[in-house]
C-alpha cells in the first residue's frame, strides 16, 4: 500500500470525526458504519419521512450501552493503529522503491534564502558544469535516497545537516565503472573543532563515505564495509566554504577494493589552484553474506519451487538418511584420502554415498574459477549447493575441500539447515576438521605445491600466502599425523552411528 493511500485515509478519517454534526448523515456507508459503531445513529436502514412523528426513544439496556462503549473502543483503536502504522509503511515503501539518481536531484527544496543561495552557487559553478558535461559520470545526491523518517538517525544525512552545518545535501558525480568520484559540499561554522576550523573528524567521515561510494559500483552487490582508512591532514579547513572531494579506485580484487582520494578547496575564481586539505587511502570489503542475501524481489517472483517427494518418504524408500560430511583442512592434510576410504566403507555396508573432491570438480562444474578469494568463495558456494542436493536425495555427500574461510563453511552449514520443505527436518551437516601441523603438511607435499608457493610461483596459497581459519567447533577432529586412515574412518563412522545417522556399521558385501 502506498504512502499516498495512507495519507488520504488519515485525512478522510479526521474529516469525518471533526465534521460539524449537521454534516453527519446516514447517506454514505462509511459514515453509517462509523456512526453505528460509535452508537450515534440507529442501525436501522430506514429513516422517518419529513413531517412524521419521530419514533419513541426507548431507554437503552445495559447490553446496548456495553456494546456501544465497546464499539467506540474498537473504532478509535483501529483508527489509532492505522495512523501509527502509516509512517512505517511510508518508510518501507521508500526502502523497497528508492528514488533513482535522477530523482534525487529534485528531491531537495531549500528552506531559506541562505540554503537557496548555496544551492544556486554550486549549480552555476564551472566545475559542476564540466562534470555534468561528461557522459561517463552519473550525477546524484546520495543522502536524498535515505528515507525521510530515517534521515534524522543518519550522521551525515541528518545529524550534521542543516543551517550552520551542511546546509544543502552534497552533489556527487560517479564514474559508471566505479573508477572515480567527485563530490561538492558546503561546510558551515557549526562543524568546527577549533574556532573557525572544520573538525578533523568530520573531514575523516567525508573521506570514508566518499571513497566508499567511489568503489561501490565495482564491488559484489554494490556494497562494502570499511576495513582500513588512513588519513593525512595537509592544511586547516576553514569553515563556511565549499569543499571538493575526489576519489579514485586504484585496485579491485574479488570482494576487496582499494581507493585513494583527497579533499580540496573549491576555486572561487577562474585560474585559481585548489588547496589540498587532507589525503586518504582506504580498503573496502564486500561482506560474504551479501552473496546469500542478494536475491531481488524480481528474481523471487520469477522462480517457483516445485514440490516433490518429502525427504522422509525418500529416506524410507531408499532405506537410509541423506546428510553431508564436510572435510576441511590444509592442502596435503589427508582430506581426500580419508574421504575416499570413508566412501568405500559406506558403500560396502550398503549405503549410497558420493565424494565431491576439490580437484575433481575443477575439471567440470568449477572449471571457470581460479584461486582468488572471490573465486574460492564461489567454489565453496557451488559445492555446498551440490552437496545439499545429494543429501536431499537420501545420499551421503562427502566433500573434501580446503575451504579456508569460516564464513564460507558457515554458509554451507546454513544452506543445509534451511533446506526444509513441507515440514521436513533440516539436512544434517557434519564438519570434519582434518588437523595436521603446517610443517607436517609441507613435509608431505605430494603435489609439490608448497615448494612452488615458497618459491613465489603460486599466489594466494593457503597456509603460506593466504590464511586458513581453523574450525572453532567442528563435529569431528581427526589428526592424520597421529591416526591411520582406518582409525580415522572408524572414528567418523562411530560418530555417525552414535548420532543415529546410520544404523549399519559393518560390511555386508
Automatic annotation (TrEMBL):
Aminoacyl-tRNA synthetase recorded as keyword: no
Molecular function per GO: adenylylsulfate kinase activity; ATP binding
Keyword flag Membrane: no
Keywords: Amino-acid biosynthesis, ATP-binding, Cysteine biosynthesis, Kinase, Nucleotide-binding, Transferase
Classification via NCBIfam families: apsK (TIGR00455), PRK03846.1 (NF003013)
InterPro entries hit by this protein: APS, APS_kinase_dom, HotDog_dom_sf, P-loop_NTPase, PTE-AB_protein, Thioestr_dom
Segments forming domain APS kinase: 321-478
Residue stretches making up the Thioesterase domain: 195-267
Pathway: Sulfur metabolism; hydrogen sulfide biosynthesis; sulfite from sulfate: step 2/3
EC number(s) per entry: 2.7.1.25
Native source organism of the sequence: Chaetomidium leptoderma
GO biological process: cysteine biosynthetic process; sulfate assimilation
Enzyme class: transferase
Name of the protein in its database record: Adenylyl-sulfate kinase
Amino acid at each position: 500500500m502506498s504512502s499516498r493511500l495512507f495519507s488520504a485515509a488519515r485525512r478522510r478519517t479526521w474529516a469525518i470525526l471533526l465534521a460539524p454534526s449537521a454534516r453527519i448523515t446516514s447517506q454514505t456507508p462509511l459514515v453509517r458504519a462509523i456512526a453505528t459503531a460509535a452508537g450515534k445513529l440507529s442501525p436501522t436502514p430506514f429513516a422517518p419521512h419529513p413531517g412524521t412523528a419521530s419514533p419513541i426513544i426507548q431507554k437503552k439496556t445495559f447490553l446496548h450501552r456495553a456494546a456501544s462503549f465497546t464499539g467506540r473502543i474498537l473504532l478509535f483503536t483501529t483508527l489509532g493503529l492505522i495512523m501509527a502504522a502509516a509512517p512505517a509503511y511510508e518508510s518501507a515503501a521508500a526502502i523497497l522503491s528508492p528514488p533513482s539518481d535522477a530523482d534525487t536531484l529534485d528531491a531537495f527544496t531549500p528552506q531559506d534564502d541562505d540554503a537557496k543561495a548555496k544551492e544556486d552557487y554550486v549549480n552555476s559553478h564551472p566545475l559542476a558544469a564540466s562534470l555534468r558535461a561528461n557522459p561517463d559520470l552519473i550525477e546524484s545526491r546520495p543522502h536524498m535516497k535515505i528515507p525521510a523518517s530515517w534521515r534524522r538517525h543518519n550522521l551525515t544525512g541528518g545529524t550534521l545537516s542543516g543551517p550552520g552545518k551542511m546546509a544543502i545535501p552534497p552533489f556527487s558525480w560517479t564514474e559508471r565503472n566505479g573508477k572515480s568520484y567527485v563530490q561538492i559540499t558546503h561546510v558551515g561554522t557549526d562543524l568546527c573543532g577549533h574556532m573557525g576550523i572544520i573538525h578533523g573528524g568530520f573531514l575523516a567521515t567525508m573521506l570514508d563515505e566518499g571513497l566508499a561510494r567511489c568503489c561501490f559500483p565495482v564491488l559484489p552487490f554494490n556494497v562494502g564495509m570499511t576495513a582500513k582508512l588512513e588519513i593525512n591532514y595537509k592544511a586547516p579547513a576553514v569553515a563556511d566554504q565549499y569543499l571538493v572531494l575526489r576519489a579514485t579506485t586504484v585496485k579491485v580484487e574479488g570482494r576487496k577494493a582499494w581507493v585513494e582520494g583527497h579533499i580540496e578547496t573549491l576555486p572561487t575564481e577562474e585560474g585559481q589552484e585548489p588547496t589540498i586539505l587532507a589525503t586518504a587511502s582506504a580498503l573496502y570489503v564486500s561482506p560474504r553474506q551479501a552473496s546469500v542475501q542478494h536475491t531481488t524481489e524480481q528474481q523471487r517472483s520469477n522462480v517457483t519451487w516445485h514440490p516433490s517427494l518429502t525427504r522422509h518418504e525418500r529416506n524410507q524408500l531408499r532405506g537410509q538418511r541423506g546428510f553431508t560430511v564436510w572435510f576441511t583442512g590444509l592442502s596435503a592434510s589427508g582430506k581426500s584420502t580419508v574421504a575416499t576410504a570413508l566412501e568405500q566403507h559406506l558403500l560396502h555396508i550398503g549405503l549410497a554415498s558420493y565424494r565431491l573432491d576439490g580437484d575433481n570438480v575443477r575439471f567440470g562444474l568449477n572449471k571457470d574459477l581460479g584461486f582468488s578469494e572471490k573465486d574460492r568463495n564461489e567454489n565453496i558456494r557451488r559445492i555446498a549447493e551440490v552437496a545439499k542436493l545429494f543429501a536431499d536425495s537420501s545420499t551421503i555427500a562427502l566433500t573434501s575441500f580446503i575451504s579456508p574461510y569460516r564464513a564460507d563453511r558457515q554458509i554451507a552449514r546454513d544452506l543445509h539447515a534451511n533446506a526444509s520443505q513441507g515440514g521436513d527436518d533440516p539436512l544434517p551437516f557434519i564438519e570434519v576438521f582434518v588437523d595436521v601441523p603446517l610443517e607436517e603438511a609441507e613435509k608431505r607435499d605430494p603435489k609439490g605445491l608448497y615448494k612452488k608457493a615458497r618459491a613465489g610461483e603460486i599466489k594466494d596459497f593457503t597456509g603460506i600466502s593466504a590464511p586458513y581459519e581453523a574450525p572453532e567447533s567442528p563435529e569431528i577432529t581427526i589428526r592424520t599425523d597421529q591416526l591411520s586412515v582406518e582409525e580415522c574412518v572408524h572414528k567418523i563412522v562411530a560418530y555417525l552411528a552414535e548420532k543415529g545417522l546410520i544404523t549399519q556399521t559393518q560390511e555386508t558385501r
